[in-house]
Amino acid sequence: MKMTRNSRMQSLILATTISIGLCFTSPVFAQQDVRDVGTFILDLNGKGLISLGTLGGSVTKVYDINDVGQVVGISTTATGERHAFITGPNGAGMTDLGTLGGPYSIATSINNAGQVVGEAYLDVPGRTHAFITGPNGVGMTDLGPQGEFWSSATGINNAGQVAGNRNPYDPYDFRDHPFITGPNGVGMTDLGPLGRVSADATGINDAGQVVGTSDTAAGDQHAFITGPNGVGMTDLGTLGGVNSFAAGINDAGQVVGASTTATGGMHAFITGPNGVGMTDLGPLEANKSYANSINDAGEVVGAFATATSGMHAFITGPNGVGMTDLNSLVELPAGTFISQAIGINNAGQVLIVTSTLVPEPETYALMLAGLGLIGFVAWRQKSENRIFTILFPEN
After folding, report:
1. Which of 32, 84, 228, 277 keeps 20 to 30 A from 52, CA to CA?
2. Domain for residue 158, yes or no?
3. Is residue 323 part of a domain?
């Protein structure tokens, strides 16, 4: 089955981050299991936490938020299927977006008109296609390409231009290519990789600049940015390590994501406008962090590793200045903490995941330590975390 996103890239990240996790896990954390317990909008303008529900099942995962607070993601239904959803403004209500004929869909991005993109199973076994909806999630249109096994939409801008990925070969081939469409999802242009055979788009801004991660000629993975309307592809480099991964972009062309460092860490980064220069945002603890999202003021959200309780969500000030643990800004029930910040809009609303710690065997916790560091792929890169699904199907 062709799963969502690029198996090859996630396998590389999984191997890298599990090894990193093994290096920093403390004896205290080794006895803990981090369990997600809720998804919320955190309103930084005094409105507090807004709880998001489900489609009748037990699990909701969130992926994006627009400037009026409409949230999209995936939720289990009362019958156990996983369907894409959209909420109303400020997270109110949850509407099932349906599928393209199969049992599964996921919503990965939303623009300010409420147009939603993602991917959904067709009624043809083994085939998954990118989709776009009309304003406020009305109607689901197959973006194709027809006859291909797999495509996935990962970002949409306010003109309705869609960025995503497609595989023109077969469901077991790793040669994924990023694409961009015209307004309202019309047409599909292949963007190609930086140097070898594969690349993945993760976001798009209103100028049509696309960001993502690509193979390089040397065989590494590097973040990239394109020019307006997807023209050209520029390697963003790294923070001194081997690999880097782009997760999001704002309308000034500031890019955020994560990069390995010369000392073996993984750090969140921000660039200047149009992807120029890569600045290390640094972690607050444990030498591990990643950025998931950026708004037009340059406020960045993501997560960093702690020595004792897994991942904690962070937020920065404008242009990435100052990294603050989001847990210091809100009161939560005892034993609960904000583990992930998934997205941030221009109204100062942050999509968050809350978690709790429970006793767990050491080896399982060590694996979770590594898995936590693929958050920027599993969350902001707009695609269902296949590795998590395979390892923990009950979730």
Report:
1. 32
2. yes
3. yes
From CA 154, how far away is CA 152, in angstroms rounded? 6
Q: For 246-257, what is each residue's pLDDT tens digit?
A: 999 999 999 999
Residue 16's pLDDT is: 37
Residue 284 lies in a domain: yes
Counting the structural domains of the chain, the total is 1
> Is residue 299 included in any domain, yes or no?
yes
What CATH number is given to the structural domain containing 60? 2.120.10.30
pTM across the whole model: 0.85
Distance CA(71)–CA(157), nearest Å, equals 15
pLDDT tens, position by position, 20-48: 333 333 333 334 567 777 899 999 887 68
d(CA 174, CA 170): 9
| Helices and strands (H, E) in the chain, number of each type | 4, 28
Mean pLDDT calculated for residue range 91-110 = 96
Q: Helix (H, G, I), strand (E, B), or coil: what is residue 168?
A: coil
What pLDDT shows up at residue 90? 95
Residue 320's pLDDT band, with cuts at 50, 70 and 90, is very high
Can you tell me the distance from the alpha carbon of 114 to that of 117, in angstroms, rounded to the nearest whole number? Answer: 10
Query: Which residues are 211's β-sheet partners?
Result: 203, 225
- Asked whether 142 and 127 are in contact (CB, 8 A), the reply is no
| Closest among 193, 294, 290 to 239, alpha carbons compared | 290
Contact 366, 9 (CB under 8 A): no
Taking Cα atoms as reference points, which of 21, 38, 29 lies closest to residue 309? 29
Residue 263: exposure state from Cβ atoms within 10 A (0-12, 13-18, ≥19):
exposed
Unique residue bearing structure tokens 């599990």: 18
Q: Is the distance from CB of 55 to CB of 72 less than 8 angstroms?
A: no
Contacts of 232 (CB under 8 A, 6+ apart): 226
Domain that holds residue 108: 7-391
